[in-house]
Amino acid sequence: MQKNILIIGGTGLIGSTIFQILKSRNPDCNLFIGSRKESNFPNRLTIDVMDYSTLSEISKQAIDLIVLCVNDKLNNVLYYAIDNQIDYIDITKPTPDLTEAFSIASKEKKLSSKIVFSSGWMAGVMSGLLQDLENTKAVELFVYYSIKDKAGESSAHFMAENVSKPFLRYKENLPVTLLHFLDSEKYDFAFEIGKRQVYNFDVPDLFILNTIEKIPTVSVKMTYSSKLVTFLLGIFQSVRLFDLLSLKNRRLLFSANGKGDKTTFEVLATTTNGRSKTVLQSDKGQSELTAFATVLHIEKLENCSFSNGIYFSHQLYQPNEMITALTTNKTIKINTFKL
Q1: 62-76, 82-96, 149-163: least confidently modelled range
Q2: Is residue 248 scored above 90 in pLDDT?
Q3: 257, pLDDT greater than 70
Q4: For range 241-270, the mean pLDDT
């Protein structure tokens, strides 16, 4: 794969991991790092996504693909990619930002590049596990998150900024307004985790699966590895304590200082042919899984022939193809069975 690929945010946790995996699998590709931070990287471009003028560096290097790993609130990189006919993959957007970016790209009468939104759970892996989207009527995602795992700064910032804001899930195509960490229920996780209290949680797949894939009922709930942390977050939300904390303190609260741990999630799908459950565990944690999945999307986009237009990452694959690609990594386990 002889391409010029720019990873904006390439000095961060996810970006640097994408760089390492991509380079090891594709030594012929020419990788650039875009960052505000100083570094000794030979192909480093000084780029600040908040300053559109700095993006002119991209065209000077004949970049074929931009991989965005930082929160681009103004969508400057998206506008630049569209205007300059450069392929684009974004793995960073929370649901409100994703809906805005999708609206921007959709208004373009004729796109001359591939625009890939890969901001679903773990770079769109969750949606990629569904094997029969056309006949799916309901999807439930259950997430187990270890407080020992590594997480990028953007994850903490998202939760800090949005923990008190309502979000939507969908039931028979009707939006249901929710808050994080409320409406708990018991769920029995695989991989010897066992029964845990799970709470409301917002991920972009709620929007993607309902609005884009037209699945009538979509919900997401999560739990932390620490039962105490899970319980306390539910209490904090129920008494509206998050509203009293400053943004800085909320960021500290959600910061993950772990050195890495397993990440697990499970997808329950109801189709016209019955119900199934797909369970996934990544031994190296969520950052490694997100980065590896992003590399698979890059390889898929660059090695296959796609028409110019808008894609969500799971749409780059045929049914079961993402599962097959993910399990080439021996640290990722995926099991699917009928219920």
Answers
A1: 149-163
A2: no
A3: no
A4: 87
Domains and CATH numbers, the chain: 4-122+287-318 (3.40.50.720), 124-285 (3.30.360.10)
Q: Which amino acid is at 221?
A: K
Q: Give per-residue burial for 211-237: e unless 16+ CB within 10 Å, then b.
A: ebbebbbbbbbbbbbeeeebeebbebb
Q: How much is the pLDDT for 338?
A: 93
Model confidence pLDDT, tens digit, residues 226-246: 999 999 999 999 999 999 999
Residue 98 token pair: 């994703």
3-state secondary structure of 19: helix
Q: How far apart are CA 216 and CA 174, in angstroms?
A: 8
- Would you say 162 and 97 are in contact if contact means Cβ atoms under 8 Å apart? no
Residue (of 74, 185, 187, 209) closest to 129 by Cα position: 209
Nearest to 290 by CA among 230, 332, 335: 332
Radius of gyration for the chain, computed over Cα atoms and rounded to the nearest angstrom: 19
Average pLDDT over residues 102-121: 95
Residue 256 confidence (pLDDT): 64
The pair of three-digit structure tokens given for residue 250, joined into one six-digit string = 């909320």
CA 184-190-194 angle, to 5 degrees, is 55
DSSP assignments along 2-63, one per residue: --EEEEETTTSHHHHHHHHHHHHH-TTSEEEEEESS----TTEEE--TT-GGGGHHHHHTT-
Q: Which amino acid is at 183?
A: D
CA distances from 171 to 139, 204, 314 (A): 10, 16, 22
- Strands 194-200, 217-224: pairing is antiparallel
Sign of CA dihedral 66, 67, 69, 71: positive
